[in-house]
Design goal:
Strand order of the largest sheet: 1-2
Order of helices and strands: HHHHHHEEHHHHHH
Structural class: mainly alpha
Distance between the termini: 88 Å
Number of strands: 2
Oligomer: single chain
């Protein structure tokens, strides 16, 4: 990575960190929603008129085993980067697991095209730098929709250039081959979502809100390894005794000499 490119990444990260602080203080929801919806509409138009037709043709002409091999190849590279992030998070055992996945699939899976590691019981963790920042306590910040790239947060946007730097697209030197790898990765990934996107189009009234809420909940769950803490204002652990005590405190105290409710005038006929 050149010094100029590294400087640009640092400048972008600093700018995003500043935006994260401002957005988190001013509004915990979706303060950029007007802009996000415009970019979302643009992405939907690009998908409808370009990406989806290409992905549909790709799925029609490329056999499923070949598409699975493409998935495995790119996921194998992600396993190596996942191991790095796991080590950065202090999860040494899980990091060694993902390193074993990468080594096993690279050697015995024909450079990752096959996935014998899964058959051996080696779990895939799929950690990225955005999750690592979350483990370090960096707040997610505002929800952002990027042109072409899609949904993100300020924190994930900071991690995105770092994740891209570890992708096979970035690591490939010839520009032509790099562009071909990027196109293959994007089209193959979109072909895997054809069925899901059709369901969303059929049943979801507000697709923007549905995708935003799903993305934020999923990322929050991933950062906390599937066990996110309760958000401020949530309480789901009230025992019956606690509920009864709160109800008694809220109920008005009976005055001495007052009649019970059942004996009040008109209570009985």
């Amino acid at each position: 990575m050149s010094l100029v490119h590294g400087g640009r990444l640092l400048l972008m990260a600093a700018s995003m960190a500043l935006l994260a602080g401002c957005a988190t203080v001013s509004n915990r929801g979706d303060p950029l929603e007007p802009m996000n919806r415009k970019i979302f509409a643009f992405n939907e138009a690009v998908d409808e008129h370009l990406l989806k037709p290409v992905a549909t043709a790709y799925a029609d002409f490329v056999p499923k085993p070949v598409r699975n091999g493409v998935d495995n190849f790119f996921n194998n590279i992600k396993d190596a980067w996942s191991a790095v992030n796991l080590f950065l998070q202090g999860r040494v055992q899980d990091g060694l697991n993902d390193m074993m996945r990468f080594g096993t699939n690279s050697v015995f899976g024909f450079f990752g095209i096959a996935d014998p590691a899964t058959e051996m019981g080696l779990e895939r963790h799929g950690e990225d730098f955005g999750q690592t920042l979350g483990k370090w306590g960096v707040p997610p910040g505002a929800y952002i929709v990027w042109p072409i790239l899609g949904p993100s947060t300020v924190r994930d946007s900071i991690g995105l250039p770092v994740d891209q730097a570890a992708s096979p697209d970035f690591l490939t030197s010839p520009t032509r081959v790099r562009n071909q790898l990027t196109a293959l990765r994007v089209v193959n990934a979109r072909s895997n979502l054809l069925g899901a996107s059709q369901v969303l189009d059929d049943i979801v009234l507000d697709k923007y809100t549905f995708i935003r809420d799903g993305y934020l909940q999923r990322r929050r769950s991933l950062v906390h390894d599937g066990n996110p803490p309760e958000e401020e204002g949530e309480r789901y652990d009230l025992e019956p005794s606690d509920t009864d005590a709160d109800a008694k405190k809220a109920a008005p105290a009976a005055q001495p000499g007052s009649a019970p409710a059942s004996a009040a005038p008109g209570a009985q006929k």
